[in-house]
Design brief:
Elements: H1 2-31, H2 40-49, H3 59-82, H4 99-110, H5 120-123, H6 126-156, H7 166-192, E1 202-205, E2 211-214, H8 219-228, H9 249-273, H10 277-304, H11 307-311, H12 328-341, H13 356-367, H14 378-398, E3 403-404, E4 407-408, H15 411-437, H16 439-442, H17 449-464, H18 479-508, H19 525-549, H20 551-557
Antiparallel strand pairs: 1-2, 3-4
Helix pairs in contact: 1-7, 1-9, 3-4, 3-6, 3-18, 4-18, 6-7, 6-8, 6-18, 7-8, 9-10, 9-12, 10-12, 10-13, 10-19, 12-13, 13-17, 13-20, 14-15, 14-19, 15-17, 15-18, 17-18, 17-20
């Protein structure tokens, strides 16, 4: 196990870093405001045709543009889902969504959560999948990256009142980053056997004489952006466990690389943009340390299996419940860690079937804010919030005013940091409590005891942190869960974005001071250790009691 696991992780990280290094160079150009590929003339015509002014925005203006843009997307997607029966590309004649499920789905895809309380092949038309969900996969991913761009500029600039133009950033990110990468990845998936068509479903007769419906659809195009944008919403209900979405071991590895690619490249771009690549490397080291530890824990727990395996004289290698045989235990466990460390709801195994400790680690990775690479953009700005908190705590210990990259960290920045870090734990714990004390909430719980509690906790952790993966075993397609989770997804997304942009606006206006003798180095092993410790401390203080009632209690029971 040790050799296979560490070889897999080593190869995975090595390939990831090589790909991300190349992509980071393009990201730096976009952060610095240079149009990619020398397309300045075409861009000018585009801005003129769309009546977009290239004038840069303040932090407040940038936040307002982001919120208005996403609210418009939410309304359009909601209307589309409510009217899909009368729209084209619906060969199966699927009906409209119910209003509460349509609202939940619209919020989910606009917030980059992609929580799915339905099975895609039985609920959504091709038009809804392509024009509705896939478009929002691009736009929600672009939103997260744009916010990260704004925060990076705030650290890199000297006494600036602006942090970029939201409309320009959203357009460039979509056209120069997401679309080209998605096209390449979609073609690769097609070569591996992923579907890409608009044919009606096939009605077949098996060798045993039974009838079976084989779903078709434009899968590869949605699959590519679902992963690159850390969205996670699958075309099929089984998501990346379905052979039409993830057919081979090679496609499985490429999917994991695609999930981490842009978050990793953004860390490198951050270091380049602020003039010190070691700063980005420090963030990558902190992320990688937590990622490797989490992967080892999950693989170890799954390879050893639950206690009753030992009692029955079975080897842990037989612990294949909820896992695909074409991936095996190690690849399934690693995928679970990747998708919950990043803000991506794609799954290639049933997390509900994991052991108590194996299921706890993906849950905890979401609860710490998904800063271990994290979602596109959201992972970087989430980690930078922890950096500011670490700098503040370190300043208290050594008796100096906190600063980072030459920018003084004042009371306002710390208040906004605390607000952004605490908003998601508050939503998770309040939502879980509400579900457990109301009859409509308890009605959806199918498993009693600690495991049922874990399922509810996982659902609200996934929603508040905009992950979208499901533990399963919980009936969530009800008005209570659809509406409650939708509100939590929205607040979990923009309750972090707004404080981040407020911080960006304040930091951009500050002067960058040269490092002095008392400046805390933020690129060495000491700071990396402090950063990892801060993340673990915040996670422990907020969620250990809840975890004790769920997966820890379940582990101690068996």
């Amino acid at each position: 196990m040790n050799a296979t696991l560490f070889l897999t992780i080593t190869v995975f990280l090595a390939v990831l870093l090589m790909l991300a290094l190349t992509l980071s160079k393009l990201l730096v150009k976009l952060i610095e405001g240079e149009p990619a590929y020398g397309l300045l003339r075409i861009e000018k015509k585009l801005w003129r045709g769309c009546a977009i002014k290239q004038k840069e925005m303040t932090g407040f203006q940038y936040a307002l543009a982001i919120i208005v843009f996403n609210l418009c997307g939410l309304v359009v997607l909601f209307i589309l889902l409510m009217a899909q029966s009368g729209l084209p590309l619906n060969p199966q004649q699927l009906p409209n969504m119910s209003w509460d499920l349509a609202f939940n789905t619209a919020v989910s895809f606009v917030t980059n959560t992609n929580w799915q309380a339905y099975s895609g092949e039985n609920t959504l038309s091709y038009f809804s999948q392509m024009v509705g969900l896939s478009v929002q996969n691009f736009l929600s991913a672009a939103t997260g990256i744009a916010v990260a761009f704004a925060l990076i500029r705030a650290f890199a600039r000297h006494s600036s009142q602006t942090i970029g133009n939201a409309w320009v950033d959203l357009t460039r990110i979509t056209l120069y980053i997401l679309l080209p990468l998605s096209l390449i990845l979609a073609l690769f998936f097609v070569s591996q056997g992923v579907l890409q068509n608009v044919s009606p479903y096939l009605h077949l007769t098996t060798l045993e004489g039974s009838h079976q419906v084989l779903p078709m659809g434009p899968v590869a195009s949605q699959e590519a952006i679902k992963l690159l944008g850390t969205n996670g919403g699958g075309f099929f209900g089984a998501n990346s466990a379905h052979p039409f979405e993830n057919p081979t071991a090679l496609s499985n590895m490429v999917q994991m690389l695609a999930i981490f690619l842009i978050p990793c490249a953004l860390c490198m771009a951050f270091g380049r943009a602020v003039g010190d690549s070691r700063q980005g490397n420090a963030l990558l080291w902190a992320m990688s340390i937590i990622f490797v530890i989490a992967a080892v824990v999950v693989v170890y727990a799954e390879l050893n299996g639950p206690d009753y395996f030992t009692q029955l004289g079975l080897d842990g290698r037989f612990n294949m419940e909820g896992k695909e045989s074409r991936f095996g235990i190690i690849a399934s466990s690693l995928y679970a860690v990747v998708t919950t460390a990043a803000s991506c709801g794609a799954v290639n195994a049933m997390h509900d079937s994991f052991t108590a400790l194996g299921g706890m680690m993906p849950l905890w990775l979401m609860q710490i804010g998904e800063v271990v690479f994290g979602g596109v953009g959201s992972g970087l700005y989430g980690m930078l919030l922890f950096v500011l908190l670490t700098v503040f705590l370190s300043g208290l210990m050594i008796g100096r005013s906190p600063e980072y990259l030459g920018k003084k960290i004042d009371v306002f920045e710390i208040k906004m940091t605390a607000l952004a870090i605490l908003v998601t734990p508050t939503l998770v714990l309040l939502g879980t409590a509400l579900a457990l004390v109301t009859d409509v909430g308890k009605a959806g719980i199918l498993n009693p005891g600690a495991h049922g509690f874990t399922e509810v906790l996982y659902a609200f952790s996934s929603a508040a942190n905009n992950n979208g993966s499901a533990f399963a075993g919980l009936s969530v397609n009800t008005p209570f869960y659809n509406l409650t989770l939708a509100v939590i997804m929205f607040l979990g997304r923009f309750g972090v974005i707004i404080p981040v942009l407020a911080i960006a606006g304040r930091l951009a206006a500050k002067k960058r001071q040269p490092a002095g003798n008392g400046t805390l180095p933020t690129q060495g092993p000491l700071f990396i250790g402090l950063l990892v410790g801060t993340i673990l401390l915040v996670g422990a203080l907020t969620f250990v009691p809840a975890l004790a009632l769920g997966p820890i209690a379940e582990y101690l029971q068996f």
